[in-house]
Design brief:
- GO terms for molecular function: acyltransferase activity, transferring groups other than amino-acyl groups.
- Keywords: Acyltransferase, Transferase.
- It is built from 4 helices and 5 strands.
- The protein has about 150 residues and is α+β, with helices and mostly antiparallel strands.
- Strands 1-2-3-4-5 form a 5-stranded mixed β-sheet, sandwiched between helices.
- Strand 2 and strand 3 form a beta hairpin.
Length: about 150
């Protein structure tokens, strides 16, 4: 049985392993400080939020999300990161994590939940096309060197 819930202090190692898997999938190398900062942010729950999916008490999925203002509607919820372990794929974990974020956003008074994915992430898009509407926007980024 899949259970969805908040991150707990004891989840740190399992969460980081999944988040590392997410970053590896997107071919990113992330320093430990980034994981530490994200973990601290999720623990405070002020700006960033996280949920986990557990299958028989083993963490098999994570989702990270945040709320931001909108000029044309009530606040919106951005689902930033969603990842499931290989062994959990196809078992409804991603769908349940998305549904949990949607429910959370409704409780917060948000007008919508949205996210981005790469155009060639065909496996994820099979799910996304079933649970959300692709509005056809193209995503642009200006990296800021620090």
């Amino acid at each position: 049985m899949i259970t969805i819930g908040p991150l707990e202090a004891a989840d740190r190692a399992a969460w980081q392993k999944l988040f590392e898997g997410y970053n590896t999938f997107y071919e990113r190398t992330v320093p430990q400080e980034v994981y530490d900062r994200a973990w601290a942010g999720f623990q405070s729950g002020e700006r960033m939020h996280a949920l986990t999916a557990k299958l028989d008490a083993t963490m098999v999925g994570i989702v990270h999300f945040l709320v931001h203002a909108s000029t044309t509607s009530a606040d919106v919820c951005y689902l930033q990161d969603l990842f499931t372990s290989d062994e959990a794929r196809g078992k409804g974990v991603g769908r349940q994590l998305i549904a949990a974020v949607r429910d959370w956003a409704v409780e917060q008074g948000c007008s919508r939940v949205y996210w981005h994915t790469k155009h060639d992430n065909h496996t994820a898009r099979l799910l996304y096309d079933k649970v959300a509407e692709n509005r056809g926007f193209i995503h642009y980024v200006i990296p800021l060197d620090r």
